[in-house]
Amino acid sequence: MSRTLILMRHARQSGLGVTDHERPLTDEGRDAAHRVGCRLRDENRLPARGLCSTALRCRQTWQTLLDGAGATIEADFEAELYNASPAELLGVLAGTDETIESVLLLAHNPGMTMLALHLAGSNQADLDTLRAGFSPGTTAVFEVRSAWSEVAPGSVKLLAFAPV
């Protein structure tokens, strides 16, 4: 069974906020997240489930993406995704119900870039593509040929990379 994993870095955030965790999106960030939702809808790549950091900018990115897609999709908001390492990101993904066929994992850099590069493994073409990094709002779509708990280099294939 083939699954789809979409990695997304939150959209552009403001420097304002009482804490880093509570920094909101800028107008530019809201516009970018809306466009990502439209693009995922138009490409028929809307996820069945979301896994999102609890940071305000991630929660706002998720909601604005859904608004752009005109969709209602359940998401789990996980504190462990806030500034998570690639291993921590994969740990949260590993807990995903195996009946779910597509997931959008929405979190922060540097973890998102590092995870994408890790998943590319030794595929030089994918590494070259992903080295552009995850600017705010960037997505990378992977085909997953394993259980969620076994996602690793060699079990995925990069299908699309879309910096914003």
Key descriptive features of the protein:
164 residues; alpha/beta; Rossmann fold; six-stranded mixed sheet; 5 helices; 34% helix; 21% strand
Shape: globular
Low-pLDDT sequence parts: none
User: What's the count of strands?
Assistant: 6
Q: Give me the CATH superfamily.
A: Phosphoglycerate mutase-like
How does the helix and strand content classify structurally? alpha/beta
The CATH topology, please? Rossmann fold
CATH architecture: 3-Layer(aba) Sandwich
Write the element-wise H/E pattern from the N-terminal end onward.
EHEHEHEHHEE
User: Please, what is the average pLDDT?
Assistant: 95
Termini separation: 30 Å
Give a short account of the largest sheet: 6 strands, mixed
CATH level 1 class label? Alpha Beta
Helix content: 25-40%
